[in-house]
Amino acid sequence: DYFLNALGPMWERTPLNPQITGRLTKEKFRVENVIFESQPGVYVTGALFLPLEERFKGPYPAMLISCGHSTNGKAYDLYQSLGILAAVNGLAAFVVDPIDQGERFQHLNKDGKPTSVGVQAHNLVGAGATLVGRNCATFEVWDLMRAVDYLQTRDDIIPDKIGACGT
To answer: How many Å separate Cα 37 from the centre of its chain?
Structure first.
């Protein structure tokens, strides 16, 4: 109860409006670039690693991979390696960019480049969230909950066989 109370209220589940923006097939796995809305107008980007159908027949159990503090988010080699390892062994793996990492920077200069990154950027988002009675962790948890919702919409994922891991 303490943790849930600290997070505060969550939002209503609204349409995800998912899009697959790119696909890549390698020798032993494939990847889909995905974007969805965790809330209206709040876009979450991720890379979904999937087994090849020739190697493993779907639908697949899946795992959600929560990124640590890498500036490039889902593109960090460790997170990519974890997604690949899952896919070549018959699991789907969804690596999602956290706020202020990868493709989700919040504070940009006029050229569209991030003005702060990493923990500093998270602290700025956290300060802004506090000013409106929220908690930065609430946004992160909600985005990951909605990532699970997205996985459950897919025909190639077993909806009640989704786990999570962090890095």
So the answer is: 11
